[in-house]
Amino acid sequence: MQQSNFTKLINKSYENVRMASYAIDCIMERIHNPALAELVRKQNKFYLDATTDIENLARSREIKLNDINLVAQTMSFVSIKLKTLKDNDSAKLSEMLVRGTTMGITDAIKARNEYPVDSPELVAIVDRIISHEEEFVDSLKTFL
Predict the structure, then answer these.
(1) Which helix (H) or strand (E) is 54 found in, with range?
(2) CATH no. of 5-143
(3) Whole-angstrom Cα distance, residue 41 to residue 35?
(4) C-beta atoms surrounding 76 within 10 Å
(5) d(CA 131, CA 119)
(6) How far is 21 from 19, CA to CA, in rounded Å?
(7) Phi, psi angles (nearest 5°) of residue 104
(8) Where along the chain do its domains lie?
(9) What is the pLDDT of residue 85?
(10) Which candidate, 116, 104, 92, 80, places its Cα nearest to that of 6?
């Protein structure tokens, strides 16, 4: 069965925020700078709230969401742990977060353009994800 653009976009958005939150969970214990830790906690709260918004919208449309796959999760976990094994200062962690978040921004913009929808609610969620991720990147730059 062919998936609609709505289903594709909502799934891409869900995978985006779930992966971002998972990556934050993996890196959080390595953050020792209180200001950076607080910034990252606030961003993770945004991701968790966005996850709930997406789940509620999917439920209202009777869409089953695809979670991040186990391979992607494992690769992310191993990559983060290896990259922070020897160097976990704030600048290095911020750089990793900037790179990951920039990938999230790129993926969200690409999905929004690739799967146009006539759903103001879904478009608003995607735009909010992009906007928050752009603000997060800007905030992280102070730690580089």
Answers:
(1) helix 34-60
(2) 1.20.1260.10
(3) 10
(4) 17
(5) 18
(6) 5
(7) -65, -40
(8) 5-143
(9) 54
(10) 116
